[in-house]
Amino acid sequence: KQEVTQIPAALSVPEGENLVLNCSFTDSAIYNLQWFRQDPGKGLTSLLLIQSSQREQTSGRLNASLDKSSGRSTLYIAASQPGDSATYLCAVRKAAGNKLTFGGGTRVLVKP
Amino acid sequence: DTEVTQTPKHLVMGMTNKKSLKCEQHMGHRAMYWYKQKAKKPPELMFVYSYEKLSINESVPSRFSPECPNSSLLNLHLHALQPEDSALYLCASSLQGVGEKLFFGSGTQLSVL
Prior knowledge:
The structure holds 2 protein chains of 2 kinds.
Chain A: E1 4-5, E2 10-14, E3 19-25, E4 32-38, E5 44-51, E6 56-59, E7 62-67, E8 72-77, E9 86-93, E10 100-102, E11 106-111
Parallel strand pairs in A: 2-11
Antiparallel strand pairs in A: 1-3, 3-8, 4-5, 4-9, 6-7, 7-8, 9-10, 9-11
Chain B: E1 4-7, E2 10-13, E3 18-25, E4 31-37, E5 44-50, E6 53-57, E7 64-70, E8 73-79, E9 87-94, E10 103-104, E11 108-112
Parallel strand pairs in B: 2-11
Antiparallel strand pairs in B: 1-3, 3-8, 4-5, 4-9, 5-6, 7-8, 9-10, 9-11
């Protein structure tokens, strides 16, 4: 059974510092991995989707890497801003057609 | 239009009530999902519809009844809920199959009294 872990559960950084968020999964036979952002009481916003054949994806200040062999993905957010404060969730899909398995999320606070 | 719209945003209901949650998307997506999320926990999959047919039911109690009237609409009918069913209910969609990028709505915050 796939298990997805995000450590730490919470993170606080001063504005301008780079953020590094970790996601680990137990079964390396994944189809893809997706990073989401969630604001309190709101839905999830998809940030980046990395297919199993890819090593990284970039969008603006966001960069996500994937190392299937070690069961890890890292989300980097450059030059953090207070507006980046949210919970970040990673989710993996084992095979096309299967459901997403979510990690518990990392709650991020960027202090002005 | 790149949105998934959910109504209502908030709902309070008693244990004997019958209510429905609605979800709509006009992106031409053919897979639609219901998730349940408790506070400070990740979303849990409830149902998946693919091409208007129920393809995944995660052993959800029968007091939750999904319906997909057409490719743009997804409903969740609620009846005789329990207080522990209070949660944020999220709708999502993806282009075709369940292996693709998911787009989520803002959710319905449900309280069962």
